[in-house]
From TrEMBL, chains A, B:
Domain of life: Bacteria
Bias type Polar residues, positions: 212-224
Gene3D superfamilies on file: 3.40.1360.10, RecR Domain 1
Function: May play a role in DNA repair. It seems to be involved in an RecBC-independent recombinational process of DNA repair. It may act with RecF and RecO.
Record keywords, A-Z: DNA damage, DNA recombination, DNA repair, Metal-binding, Zinc, Zinc-finger
Segments of this protein annotated with the region Disordered: 203-224
Family to which this protein belongs: Belongs to the RecR family.
SUPFAM superfamilies in UniProt: Recombination protein RecR
Domain Toprim: 80-176
Name of encoding gene: recR
Protein name: Recombination protein RecR
Amino acid sequence: MSLTPSLDRLIHQLQKLPGVGPKNAQRLAIFMFKKGADFSRDLSEAIVEMASSVRYCGVCFGICESDVCEICSNNLRDHGKICVVEKPTDVFHIEATGQYNGVYHVLNGLISPLEYLTIDKLNIRSLVSKLNADDCTVGEIVFALPPKVEGDATMALIKKMIKRPFEISRLAQGIPTGCEIEHIDSMTLARALNNRHQMDADKKAVNPAPGDSSQGVHQTKLIQ
Amino acid sequence: MSLTPSLDRLIHQLQKLPGVGPKNAQRLAIFMFKKGADFSRDLSEAIVEMASSVRYCGVCFGICESDVCEICSNNLRDHGKICVVEKPTDVFHIEATGQYNGVYHVLNGLISPLEYLTIDKLNIRSLVSKLNADDCTVGEIVFALPPKVEGDATMALIKKMIKRPFEISRLAQGIPTGCEIEHIDSMTLARALNNRHQMDADKKAVNPAPGDSSQGVHQTKLIQ
């Protein structure tokens, strides 16, 4: 169905967004028109401002609005500890916990041959050369990758490429907060059983002692 | 979760769109960032152009990019026949059938006291004064309103407010094309049975004869 030329153009653009089909794009375009010129101006200005301001951090490949992100340029953070994540937004999710004071490295994906995500499409070589450099001051690597085949493959590959020994940990796997035991899949439940820990450990994880280098990341399995 | 200031601002704006929650807004914003500046520029330009170009037609309240829409300003259309629809997009859906050559009047909603949609919030008085004017040349009204309580109430109200007799019809109700009889609700099936028509009528409706004034709108019930 063809509407007016400028509505059609907007619908065409909106359809390029993920999860927005033809009907939904038409609904959004008509909604914008009905909300009036102020609404459309605010939205388009927000898009333009985002596109001109946001960029990848030159050090960790997270997202920020300057050349180096606030975390990488903060001398109060522990630069000897590097947390490897899949996506830029993972950084913000981990920051929201308030339980980590090191720096990050964003891979921008996981190894997945089926999706043509190979080593050269991800920020893996930059991480490895950072870790293999002679003047590297990193002593600890925390893998915060999704617990699935692609995450495990990526982790294994990086481990294989680094030449020096590091203290390497991965996020604890187990049951999420607030859920019923009966709703947990058996794989997760099996891991939660195998990785069970002494009840005193919880206290330490949630309220880490000042200067405690583990800072609440459960180092239940050191995967050297 | 707070990202960078300009991403947060964009997410805030995107959440105002219908059906876009916080997670979806964040996903859309990150998608736009990843697609690069060209994508965001095209989208924001399309929004701005739409907001500055599209307006309501001064005659029928449909949407167009000039003061009077192409249909209202087209002398080849039958201005003696007016089709009353709920939404501006309904005009384009009916036009897509190629079965109607009259003009339109868009109510911009249906009477619904529960949603505070009263007579003064809709384009009802303008329709009625057009129809009650001494120099009115309209002879036929086609109601293409949704077959539900609000549509019926709106139709009844308009019929009550018009003073002269008109040939009034409403869209045929029955089973939609391509569906299985077992999937039709009983109310629709009952109407399809009551409004059944001679099989020759179909031929006439789909291929109206040149100069045929009914132009395929099934006038199964004239509701005077």
